[in-house]
Specification:
Number of strands: 27
Oligomer: single chain
Strand order of the largest sheet: 1-2-3-7-6-5-4
Shape: globular
Radius of gyration: 28 Å
Length: 650
């Protein structure tokens, strides 16, 4: 064999090996149940983001026909059972139920013409879903594995669109213990096939339920927005901000009309949907408000390496990694640079300009959390210093969060609340959200134990807010007399007053009467409606009178801050921890082209005496911070300080 032939033979062999590597079947290592569920998300978002109506008989026929095109789906008794005013579990209304002959697949369309009843039903459904594990959510619905003991698991998608609640499900012929489970090859094939079936069912619903004029807002996995659609979405967001964003002085400082002129060429320029949404994200970030931000379409998720970072002692510190990285990138390492740029500079130029926040400490904390993240699933290269002062450089693939990653420290799912009895008979109760009404009943279940405890600690450090009414229902148990909530204001826009004020814009306020000043403010967009605080009257038979400490942190936000404002004037508690998030207010949600959305803060809140906290955060009475040492050693200095405070007080 001559030399040239040997080289050709070697090259052909290498190509054949590479070809085999490229086309080898997927292994358990790269198969993820979570990733498979995400394949259904775009359809869930598409239906959930669009308007649907109560279907008449003709439309129901169209829907049945669309579903019937899939020969594997056969209606019960070869016909669809359609009934009015029936009740099934928590749901009352109109139901369309299609099942296979063996009852292993189903599709439910639950409709009610009463919007209030429909909203209540959706809350009940969400609470029911919340009892299952394996949930993956979009902003507009849920895709989840129903995991129950002694029963086969099932794939489900549930969402609400206008007056419709839609559920599609497929029962699997086996039980999956948890999302971390490794499926044998035979079960994996069945699982993937079920995912495809579930997606096809939802697509049929999508075609039958979503009106064509709503297609602008649907999520698109394989299509890109046109320049006209991008322009429409930008102008829509800019306009809603101009007239509804509560802090009009920030709009004036930015010269909001000039912002429009500056952004238009960027919006019209040829770009990807990712570039476009990052442009909108940057627009909202300019307003520096935690309740004014852009949500990306589901097709543009955030990718990160399997590294968890936290802002501690002024540094970006590694606090958790997967087991395969623990010796290479040990917890306690600090990030020195990213993509060759100093960490501080990278934060200030690449990350923070896209974060919507009114407080400096939140900008830094959220910035560090997203330091290595991107909307692109490429590699990130960074330099770090280990705890033993060795400096290394590492490149890691950014990927979607996966429940089956093996982290060095397990990350348990946060419960809605947690109760435990500490030393000296001190009761500890964490209230981790006010977004679910069940938090009130969970609190009430602990009333007997709270009543006999020597002291109480309420932990709000993981409470990002929700509904302030739920917070006040809990506070009633601690109130000896009526208490007031925060004061608030919102923008006013009266077109006739604006017209009258046009000729007054350059006149001094001192030369105008009250009517003219109001007209001028309407023209300038600075007229405000000032609401008065609500008075909450205790109506509970139980009145808890115990030494009380409330723990706060940077994740204490929105309705949790409303809780603190009301608590402040009751003079019954001491707060311990760190400064809160510093943002609240009623957000206005709008849809954006391609499946994204945005929210705009429309309401400014403050203490009843006028003290500000939005943009600053609420400082605790006693400040205690986490440190690198406490986090790495799973210590809780805030809780320890609260216990010591109560022991000394008693």
């Amino acid at each position: 064999m001559d030399k040239s032939f040997r080289l050709l033979f070697l090259l052909a062999t290498l190509l054949l090996i590479q070809s085999c590597r490229t086309h080898k079947p997927p292994t358990e290592q790269n198969f993820s149940m979570v990733d498979s569920l995400r394949d259904v998300f775009a359809v869930v978002e598409g239906i959930g983001s669009s308007k649907t109506t109560i279907l008449d008989e003709n439309q129901l026929t169209v829907l049945i026909r669309a579903l019937g095109q899939d020969q594997s789906l056969v209606a019960v008794n070869d016909s669809c059972r359609i009934a009015n005013n029936i009740t099934t579990g928590l749901i009352a209304g109109r139901k369309l139920n299609l099942q296979t002959n063996d009852h292993k697949e189903w599709m439910l369309l639950l409709q009610n013409e009463d919007p209030d009843l429909n909203t209540t039903q959706w809350k009940d459904v969400r609470n029911l879903i919340g009892t299952y594990s394996g949930i993956e959510t979009t902003n507009l619905g849920y895709c989840y594995l129903k995991l129950e003991a002694n029963q086969n698991s099932s794939l489900n998608a549930t969402l609400k669109s206008n007056n419709s609640i839609i559920n599609a499900g497929i029962e699997l012929p086996f039980r999956i213990p948890g999302m971390d489970s490794v499926l044998p090859e035979s079960q994996k094939v069945i699982f993937i096939d079920a995912i495809h079936k579930l997606k096809s069912r939802l697509i049929a619903f999508d075609k039958a339920l979503v009106s064509p004029e709503q297609s602008l807002y649907k999520s698109r996995m394989n299509e890109h927005l046109s320049s006209e659609e991008r322009l429409f979405g930008f102008v829509q967001l800019w306009t809603e901000l101009k007239y509804n964003f509560v802090f009009s002085e920030r709009l004036n400082q930015l010269n909001w009309d000039q912002v429009l002129l500056d952004y238009l060429p960027q919006v019209k320029a040829e770009q990807s949907d990712l570039d476009y949404y990052e442009l909108l994200q940057g627009l909202c970030a300019k307003l520096k408000d935690g309740h004014t931000e852009v949500y990306f379409p589901n097709k543009l998720p955030l990718y990160s390496p399997t590294v968890e970072l936290k802002y501690l002692d002024g540094e970006a510190i590694v606090i958790n990694v997967t087991n395969d990285l623990k010796t290479v990138l040990p917890p306690g390492s600090r990030i020195l640079s990213v993509e060759g740029i100093d960490t501080k500079e990278y934060l200030e130029t690449k990350i923070i300009p896209r974060i919507s926040s009114s407080t400096k400490h939140i900008l830094l904390e959220e910035g560090v959390r997203e330091l290595l993240s991107s909307r692109s699933n490429n590699e990130v290269k960074f330099t770090y210093e280990t705890p033993d002062h060795k400096i290394n450089t590492l490149s890691l693939k950014r990927e979607l969060p996966q429940n089956n990653n093996h982290w060095l420290k397990t990350k348990p799912r946060l419960a809605l609340s947690e109760f435990k009895l500490l030393d000296a008979h001190i009761a500890y109760l964490s209230l981790n959200s006010f977004s679910n009404k069940a938090i009130v009943s969970e609190f009430e279940k602990q009333l007997e134990k709270l009543s006999v405890a020597n002291a109480i600690i309420i932990d709000l450090r993981n409470n990002g807010g929700g509904n302030s009414e739920y917070a006040y229902e809990i506070l009633k148990y601690f109130a000896a007399k009526p208490f007031i909530t925060s004061t608030w204001s919102t923008r006013e826009n009266r077109p006739a007053f604006k017209a009258w004020g046009a000729s007054l814009q350059y006149k001094a306020d001192s030369s105008l009467d009250d009517f003219e000043r109001l007209s001028k403010k309407n023209y300038l967009g600075t007229s405000m409606y000032n609401g008065t605080p609500d008075t909450i009257v205790p109506d509970k038979k139980i009145h808890i009178q115990k030494p009380l400490v409330v723990l706060t942190g940077s994740n204490t936000a929105s309705a949790a801050e409303d809780f603190l404002i009301a608590l402040d004037q009751m003079h019954i508690a001491t707060t311990i921890g760190s400064t809160t998030y510093g943002s609240t207010g009623q957000p206005l949600f709008i849809k954006l082209p391609g499946g994204g959305s945005a929210r705009i803060c429309t309401k400014k809140d403050s203490y009843a005496d006028g003290r500000e906290f939005v943009g600053y955060g609420i400082k605790p009475d006693i400040e205690v911070r986490e440190t690198i040492t406490s986090v790495l050693n799973d210590q809780d200095p805030v809780l320890e300080a609260a216990v010591q405070f109560l022991l000394k007080k008693n």
